Amino acid sequence: MxxxxxxxxxxxxxxxxxxxxxxxxxxxxxxxxxxxxxxxQMWLNLSTIFRKLSFDPHVRAILLTGAGDRAFTAGLDVKAxxxxxxxxxxxxxPDPARTATTLRRHILDFQSCITSVEKCxxxxxxxxxxxxxxxxxxxxxxxxxxxxxTTTRFSVKEVDxxxxxxxxxxxxxxxxxxxxxxxxxxxxTARVFDSEEALRVGFVSEVFNDKNAAVAxxxxxxxxxxxxxxxxxxxxxxxxxxSRDRPVQDGLSYTAVWNAAMxxxxxVKDAMLSGLQRRKPTFEKL
Length: 286
Prior knowledge:
The chain is α/β, with parallel strands linked by helices. It has two domains: 7-226, 2-enoyl-CoA Hydratase, Chain A, domain 1; 230-277, Lyase 2-enoyl-coa Hydratase, Chain  A, domain 2, CATH 1.10.12.10. It is built from eleven helices and ten strands. Helix 1 runs parallel beside helix 3 and helix 4 (135-142) crosses helix 5 (169-176).
C-alpha cells in the first residue's frame, strides 16, 4: 500500500485536501456558505496546493470539487471584489498608465493562479455541480477532464458584471469546444446553460444523476489513471497541452525529443510484461 502524503502538509484555508485512494488527491473548494465563491486568498491558496501536488511523489491524479450540493463555485466573490481591486484605483497616482500597470499585474497574477491547475503535472478531473458560474468555467477549463450532473447550471458570467472574462475562459474555451458560434453565444450573452447542452458541444465529457454519482465516477477515473505508469501519464498530459497550442509539426518534434528520454524508463518493460503475464503492474514513485 502506498504511503499517503500527510494531510497536515495540505492545510489551507477554504480548501479540504484529502487522499481517498492510492495515489489520488481530492481538492475540495470549501466555502459552501458563500457558494464557494472566490476571493484573493483563495486563488492564491489554490495555486499553492496545485504546485505542491504537482511535485508530490505520492500523487498521480487529482479530483477537484466544491463543498456542499449548491455550487462547484459561483465564481468571483463580487462583494469582496467590489471592495478591492475592481472598485477603486489601485495606485495613488491619477495617471492612467500607472493604474493600468497595477491592474495588469493583478490580472496576470490571478491568471497564473488558475493556470497552475493546467501546469500541474498530474491530470485533474473537475466535477462541475450545482452553480458553476464565471470562475468555475475558467477553473474547469484549466483541468483535464470535466464531468457534470443533471442539475449543474453553467454561465460565462463576466459580461453581466461589466467586463470581458479575463482569467482564461476566452482563451481556453475555443480550444475545448469545436463550435465557435456556440462559444461566442454563451460568452456574449452570459446566459445559463445546462449539462445537456454542455455535453452536446463537448464542454463536459459525461453527465451523472447527482453530485455523489459524479464524484464516485471521477474517483474511479482518477484511480484508473493513478494505476498507470506515472512517467506515461505525466508525458501524455504535457504533450497534449503543448500540442493543443501549436501546429502539428511542432507537437511531433517536441514529442520525439520528450520520448527520446522518457521511453528509456523501466515502466515500459514493467507495463508490457504485466500485460503479457496478466498481473497488475506497480510503478516507482515519480
